[in-house]
Design brief:
By secondary structure, the protein is an alpha+beta fold. It contains 31 helices and 16 strands. Strands 5, 6, 9, 10, 11, 12, 13 and 14 form an 8-stranded mixed beta sheet that branches. Strand 10 and strand 11 form a beta hairpin. Helix 18 crosses helix 20, helix 18 packs antiparallel against helix 22 and helix 22 runs antiparallel to helix 23. Pfam families: Plavaka. It comes from Circinella minor.
Length: 733
């Protein structure tokens, strides 16, 4: 017998479906599926689940695929659907019901719950799905709940959470963790106090931009990192001799040590719509070994400040003409505020600071390196960009000579730049704008009060370092673009096909969607390394021999420069590879828009010197600071309202609480909080053995590949050409 779903209907029994359909047309009010489904679950003896499901199918057929949806007043409205997903969702609604209070307190769940979840599990599932938790976060919170349940079961004592709200947690951190971290300060400065900004631009700038800098006391933050308990045994306490290039420069006071500061800054996007930006300045100590300070979970690198966000206006020609100089003046004014604790001291004077084992040390702060990409380096050095005469932030090499070898070009010196800027400031006060522009253009220098001039041992020109992520990777990208211009469309299609059919090797990226850079969107540094490793095997017969030799020696230099260990021989080989690359580069320069006369190509000549002075490139590359953006820029930005004038201050408040909490814990507690530690889990060591292609369990040899496919005819020659270190003296077959 079939039944009418309307509870108020007196004619509730019918023999056929046709009779039910005819009867339903007499009802004027809409059918409330939800009430019907729940009534079937409550009265399980009368309405079985199978009958309800079969009737639901008939109901969809009758109403021409219309389903009901409840509005705000509790009434149902018909919404058209053409998908079976809605039918399945309605069936699932029949099996999932509201859990009563007894089940929510830890019961085994109701008999109608087909998910077989208890009350706690069901509440947690609803919460995780509603906020769209990631897999890792879901597992982390599930482990926390399970640990709490095990603790209650083992101790027999109830567990009470004292901070059930986020505000309560913040209040507890502020009271109990006070002094564990260095707080941020907000400084709203007057734009008229910044030297070097034209008077006719001050009002327009004040109306369009905020002038708030959020920063920490650099001395207190250095002391926090220097005295961090987990690094006591690993902290490097340098001797009392100040050395540079292996020569003694000066002898420090008795008992004093060098406190090596590493600063890094970069502007980054923090919102999904690419409208909100932040400009953090990070600080870490060179006294901490690189393997420790570059690991994010060790918290050896902290945010020192958030610079104000300054973007060139499109609708104000007055500001646009002087924008690069205005931005440089403001950033250096902010740096003067940040570095005030170390400024105006005598050279080699010491500062008392708590360090390892809670002892008081006499330290001499020194800027060991400023880690940044090329635009940021120019901003900190006060050097102009574009088509200026001298655009290198480290030396006086002319922009027109960036394609030539760099040998004995004079370096930029702090005293020289200081004299140029002082002369420019006098001309600005006298109102001689024409002479100011000529002076700035002649030396390609922004006329600003450089903040690093007032701090002893903080020479920005001696502290700038090379970078693998932007400079070395950018130079390789430029070369590949030049190679791409040499090729025809047919050659590119064939190269993409070769890359697609290459055998797969472990830890080697596959380029199934296309090999050339036109097929890759925003490649990362690791993708470029994988791209570089198979370049010659794919293009060797599509370009000239000189181009192949040029690329081969650049690849040699790439691997030698990014090596994890160096000696005198390896550095000399790196220099030789760079010279050979420059010798053969005219073949590629013909297809370069800049004729290889661009700054990243010029920066290649500085790698050997930086490695000799500071060690391997990985210890001062921008990769660590780029990864730090996720934790110290993007995550704090999510806790703000993205208002341009106040959101950097909100980020500072969040970071103060965040650092206070984690700085109060040791590294073992942080690891237990951040990751799920499972003592029973074992992992196999990763192997570096290359996988060979198989033919029904048998290894395939190079000879068999050469005999089968024309693509690999010259494979042996290419392998020999790539690995042979004396390629020019060996004849080819």
């Amino acid at each position: 017998m079939l039944k009418c779903p309307y509870a108020s209907c007196k004619n509730r029994s019918f023999r056929t479906e046709k009779a039910v359909n005819v009867h339903l047309s007499s009802h004027k009010e809409p059918l409330l599926f939800t009430s019907y489904i729940i009534s079937n679950q409550i009265d399980a003896n009368t309405h079985q689940e199978e009958n309800a499901a079969s009737f639901l199918d008939d109901e969809y057929d009758y109403h021409d695929d219309y389903a009901t949806d409840m509005d705000d007043d509790g009434h149902s409205s018909f919404i058209k659907t053409n998908s079976n997903n809605d039918k399945n969702a309605m069936r699932k609604l029949m099996t999932v019901t509201e859990v009563d209070m007894e089940d929510s307190n830890g019961g085994n769940g109701s008999s109608g719950n087909s998910l077989k979840l208890n009350g706690i599990e069901l509440r947690f599932a609803r919460a995780s799905l509603s906020v769209r938790l990631s897999k890792a976060k879901h597992t982390q919170f599930a482990d926390i709940i399970q640990d709490a349940a095990d603790l209650v079961y083992n101790t027999g004592k109830p567990l009470k959470i004292s901070t059930r709200t986020l505000d309560g947690l913040f209040a507890k951190i502020n009271t109990e963790c006070d002094g564990e971290s260095v707080s941020f300060y907000e400084h709203n400065f007057d734009i008229s106090a910044v030297h070097g900004i034209p008077n006719n631009c001050i009002k327009d700038f004040r109306d369009s931009y905020g002038t708030i800098i959020v920063y920490r006391n650099i001395k207190e933050l250095c002391e926090l990192l220097f005295s961090y308990k987990e690094f006591w045994e690993d902290t490097i306490l340098l001797p009392e001799i100040w050395e540079r290039d292996g020569k003694r420069v000066a002898e420090l006071p008795l008992g004093a040590i060098v406190l090596a500061l590493l600063l890094s800054s970069d502007e980054t996007v923090v919102s999904g719509n690419n409208r909100a930006f932040t400009h953090p300045l990070y600080l870490k100590l060179g006294n901490t070994p690189k393997d420790i300070r570059n690991k994010a979970t060790n918290r050896a690198s902290h945010v020192l400040a958030y610079f104000p966000i300054l973007h060139c206006p499109n609708n104000n020609n007055k500001l646009r003409q002087s924008w690069s100089n205005i931005k440089c003046c403001i950033i250096h004014y902010c740096l003067q505020i940040i570095l005030a604790s170390f400024a105006d001291r005598a050279p080699y004077s010491t500062i008392s600071m708590t360090g390892p084992y809670n002892k008081i040390y006499q330290v001499v702060p020194a800027l060991a390196g400023y880690i940044a990409d090329l635009p940021e380096q120019r901003l900190m050095a006060g050097v102009k960009s574009g088509m200026a005469t001298y655009t290198c932030p480290r030396c006086w090499t002319a922009t027109a000579d960036f394609h030539l070898p760099y040998y004995n070009t004079k370096k930029r010196k702090t005293n020289t730049i200081k004299q140029i800027c002082e002369c420019g400031m006098k001309l600005i006060k006298d109102g001689k704008d024409g002479l100011v522009k000529q002076l700035s253009k002649k030396y390609s220098t922004q006329l600003v009060d450089n903040a690093f001039e007032t701090v002893p041992h903080f020479s920005i020109f001696d502290s700038l370092v090379v970078d693998t992520l932007h400079q070395l990777g950018g130079a390789y990208t430029h070369l590949v673009e030049c190679v791409q211009r040499m090729l025809t469309e047919g050659d590119i299609e064939e190269i993409n096909s070769r890359a697609k059919h290459l055998p797969h090797f472990r830890e080697q990226r596959t380029f199934s969607s296309g090999y050339m850079l036109c097929s890759i969107t925003s490649p990362t540094y690791m993708e470029l390394r994988h791209h570089l490793s198979i370049l010659l095997s794919l293009i060797h017969d599509k370009v000239s021999s000189q181009t192949v030799l040029c690329l081969r020696h650049f690849i040699d230099f790439f691997y030698q420069a990014t090596s994890k260990e160096h000696s005198g021989d390896t550095i000399q080989k790196m220099k030789d590879s760079l010279k050979l690359y420059n010798t053969y580069s005219p073949a590629i320069a013909l297809y370069s828009k800049s004729k290889l006369c661009f700054p990243k190509n010029h920066s290649l000549w500085k790698y050997a010197k930086d490695i000799e002075m500071r060690g391997v490139v990985s210890s001062y590359s921008t990769e660590a600071s780029e990864n730090q953006h996720k934790q110290d820029a993007k995550q704090p930005a999510k806790r703000t309202n993205f208002n341009r004038t106040v959101f950097t201050g909100q980020m500072g408040k969040f970071k103060t609480r965040y650092d206070a909490f984690f700085d109060s814990c040791d590294l073992q507690q942080i690891a237990m909080i951040k990751t799920n530690i499972c003592n029973n889990q074992t992992s196999l060591p990763s192997t570096k053995i290359l996988s060979a292609p198989l033919d029904r369990g048998k290894l395939v040899t190079i000879e068999s590949i050469q005999n089968q496919e024309e693509l690999f005819e010259k494979l042996e020659d290419q392998i020999r050409m790539y690995l042979d270190t004396d390629i020019m003296k060996r004849p080819h077959r």
